[in-house]
Amino acid sequence: MTENMRSLKSFFVYGCLFALTFGNNISLSVENELFTSVSNNFPEGGSAKKIMSFPLLYTNSQKSKAHFDWVVIQNTTESLSLSQITNDNVKKLITLLSDFRKGSRLQNLTLANMSVDWSAFIELLQTVWHSSIEYLSINNLTQLSDIEHCNFIYSNTSMKALAFKKVLVTDLYFSQDNLYEIFANMNIAALTIAESELIHMLCPSFDSPFRYLNFLKNDLTDLLFQNCDKLIQLETLILQRNKFESLSKVSFMTSRMKSLRYLDMSSNLLRSAGAKEHCRWTESLTELDLSSNQLTESVFGCLPVNINKLNLQNNQITSVPTGIAELKALKELNLASNRLADLPGCSGFAALEFLNIEMNLILTPSADFFESCQKVRELRAGHNPFKCSCELQDFVRLERQSGGKLSRWPEAYRCEYPEDLRGTQLKDFHLTELACNTTLLLVTALLLTLVLVAVVAFLCIYLDVPWYVRMLWQWTQTKRRAWHDCPEERETILQFHAFISYSERDSLWVKNELIPNLEKGEGCIQLCQHERNFIPGKSIVENIINCIEKSYKSIFVLSPNFVQSEWCHYELYFAHHQLFSENSNSLILILLEPIPPYIVPVRYHKLKALMAKRTYLEWPKERSKHALFWANLRAAININLPVADGKRCGERG
């Protein structure tokens, strides 16, 4: 570092913050009253710290004059930042900038916190226009007043780009053209006027060299550049956060911009063109940003045919209609934050490679998306309220087969419904094949039903269920008829001590042994036998039921012949039903002959159960035991019954 550099400290220039970018071995000298040292924080020799800025203070003191080589400043400074510029010091700033003629290294100038009137602003701008400066940025320009017409000289300039941010015009009454024509006719490539409450901009008076225009966050409306044919070189137009309403008028605005490639209309008040409105876009437009507007699905009827990238994020689109004009060149489509309920198809977007549908209302995306959109390399579908169901599982399965086309998988893909799965990542959601395959489910259900029917049918046949159902039906029908036909006999009166059930093949023993021994002697027992007590005209079932109900006991003479008799089975069934319905102990089993288990039919499972659980009387072969047998049997059925109409034991009713 030279001796002059060691003496260079922090300074203020006319109250303006002064920032310089230097080359190597800078030496500064000034012949007039520009600078004075006010601090001692300059980097020492050998330090790696770079020189970034120097606050310089103007003073009238002759003793504080510094001797710098100002010519060296002109030849080494590339960027200059000044602030706090007012009408009081703007003349001296103009004098300073006048020294940066063409050929000097200064290319970038930033002016901040300016408060000057119109004439001083124009003089400063004219000075910059004819200097070596190529890029001028002015931030926070206030008190811009006394606006009037001026003859600005645009020729012979190095300027390429001009940017204004937060310009405040304090004049209430002035000609708008005097303000706008200064900017509209500038012969530079890029112009930015942002956050300045700009309400209009004139069409240039001649073919403009503008290639970049940025009017961010102003108050521009649909009247901008209508019928303007002078912006033939314009490639980028940014109109974000203004007050445009008609998409159709925006399309006509671009129709004469033959070179326009990028248009940003985001965060406006745009609504879709109606059926009666027509759209005419420039054919050169390839990128269009329409995000954060009020567009619906009808917007797809008003889009540039050669569009390559389209941003429709944060609108009111519920679907992508079919039958629209094909956008054959469209490669990137952003539909995030809309109201879509399903993935759009690619029938109108044959070249689509990127699709963003995050934060919509998609519950179950269509599984055929990847089939219809085979050129899509990246799909963003996260942050939707996914309903974890079979349809969604098909989509997840296709994701695994697609080779990672789902962007931000799996973090952004979670179940929203049902509630018990809320928050579960889709990769962790699984359902069985049987639950999701309707055909397989139906076949399985049919097979299970057939197996169940077969099992039930086998059991019914094996257990003779139809026979029991038929008997139960007959019993209920008999009871019903007895209830309606003989209301005077609703209260059952016992008329017999016992009802005898036996096989016809065992009738000799019943008639020769059982009946005589029970009906003779003192304390005679009145027996009910089908041959003498069944009432003619009634069905056999009705007679069996009536006899069982009017008898205190039911005696069953068991033998191999008994189990082979159908009517014996009826009688046993009804007596057993009576046993349970009246909660009584009315059955008496007499085993006349041993019954081998293998000859008992399956439907006689009640007989098997009764013989296994209940005590039965076995007819003894020895005559010496017969007396005891009859005594036990009499004791089992002993009961006092009234003898009706003077009838005696043994007489037929």
TrEMBL record:
Membrane topology type: Single-pass type I membrane protein
Pfam families for the chain: LRR_8, LRRCT, TIR
GO cellular component: plasma membrane
Molecular function per GO: lipopeptide binding; signaling receptor activity; Toll-like receptor 2 binding
Residue ranges of every copy of the TIR domain listed in the record: 494-637
PANTHER family in the record: TOLL-LIKE RECEPTOR (PTHR24365), TOLL-LIKE RECEPTOR 6 (PTHR24365:SF422)
Alphabetical UniProt keywords: Glycoprotein, Immunity, Inflammatory response, Innate immunity, Leucine-rich repeat, Membrane, Receptor, Repeat, Signal, Transmembrane, Transmembrane helix
Gene: Tlr1_0
Annotated transmembrane regions: 440-463
Compartments in which it is found: Membrane
InterPro entries listed in its UniProt record: Cys-rich_flank_reg_C, Leu-rich_rpt, Leu-rich_rpt_typical-subtyp, LRR_dom_sf, TIR_dom, Toll_tir_struct_dom_sf
SUPFAM superfamilies, sorted: L domain-like (SSF52058), Toll/Interleukin receptor TIR domain (SSF52200)
Major site of localization recorded for this protein: membrane
The UniProt record lists the keyword Coiled coil: no
Name of protein: Toll-like receptor
GO biological process: cellular response to bacterial lipopeptide; inflammatory response; innate immune response; toll-like receptor signaling pathway
Tree of life domain: Eukaryota
Keyword Glycosyltransferase annotated: no
